Amino acid sequence: MTGSPAIVASGLTRAFGNKTAVDGIDLRIESGEIYGFLGPNGAGKSTTVRMLTTLLAATSGDALVAGHSISHEPDTVRLNIGVALQDAALDPKQTGRELLDLQGRLYGIPKEQRAERVTELLRLVDIG
Fold first, then answer.
1. Alpha helices in the chain, H assignment, sequence order
2. Is the pLDDT at 1 greater than 50, yes or no?
3. What is the pLDDT, as a whole number, of residue 90?
4. For 100, phi and psi rounded to 5 degrees?
C-alpha cells in the first residue's frame, strides 16, 4: 500500500453500555508516519488502538488499516499488521494456553485446528 495512508478512521466510536469510550474519531495517518496517542487514563487511547487492531469491534464508524476495513475485513487487517501491546494490555491471569489461543484467533485459525496447534506448541516448549 505504498503511497496510501496507513490508517484512515471515520466516525470511529465505541460504547460500553451507556458509556461512550471513543466518540467519533476521524483520523488519517500516512504511511511511514509515527503517531502517538496521548491523554489521561480513561481518554479512550487503548480502546482506539484495540479497535484499529481488530481486538475490539467498533460500535459505529469504520477505519481502513493498510487499506482494509476493520469492520468488514478484520482477518485481512490482522494479516497486514503487527502489534506489540504493552504489559498492561495483557491480563496477568491469562495462561500460556489462553495467550496462544488468542493469537490463533487473531490469525483466524478455526477453533478445532487452533486447539490442536496450541496443545502441540505447549508440548513443544514443554510448558503444557
1. 45-52, 74-80, 96-106, 111-124
2. no
3. 63
4. -65, -40
AA identity, residue 70: I
Q: Which three cell numbers stand for residue 127?
A: 510448558
**What are 16-34's pLDDT values in tens digits?**
999 999 999 999 999 999 9
DSSP at 72: T
From residue 118, alpha-carbon distances to 28, 55, 66, 97 in Å are 37, 20, 28, 7
Contact call for residues 22 and 14 (beta carbons, < 8 A): yes
Q: pTM, whole model, 2 decimals?
A: 0.70
End-to-end CA distance of the chain: 40
- Pick the closest to residue 122 from 90, 92, 100 (CA basis): 100
